[in-house]
Amino acid sequence: METTGADPHMIVCEITETMLLHDVETAGATLHELKSIGVRVALDDFGTGYSSLTYLCRFPIDIVKVDRSFVSQLGTATPDATIVEMVVNLARTMQLDVVAEGVETERQQRLLKAIGCPLGQGYLFAKPCSAADLERAIMAVSDHDLSKDVDLCGEGDLSEEIDLSADASDLLDSFNEGAAFFDEVVGFGDDD
Q: Over the stretch 95-111, which tens digit does the pLDDT of each residue have?
């Protein structure tokens, strides 16, 4: 952060439950140190590990990321919608942000909005792209009508999602935060 001048509050360190199992004491100390300098911590793939609820209490978690396996089954005859709603309510009660991973269809987006999930990421919003492709896309759209569809990126190695109806600074903020805000960026807000 000293080298880049990055604002630590704009950085999210994503960890999985499995990573925490390897060395709980070291993981806890490291996460508390990151938190003390302002870095936010996201628990990725929530619901697929062994001690999810314990981790929410034991570690300085700011964001819970609902695993795509639950999101992908929304709208089918499975209990996944109930699980997602339960995680959203738990996160809200614990004053944590919650992100639905793997949002690929408008139906999933509508169901997540109905459940009360405020954040999401997935192919519905943008496909992964390299940092160079993202920078080119932002520069290309910053001088154009951003309400029109633009092919943002091809295949790549990043998973940040952005929405092209926002201005260029919002695009950078969304990229840096690593999740699209449904209410403000992706359109999970009230319909006009």
A: 999 999 999 999 999 99
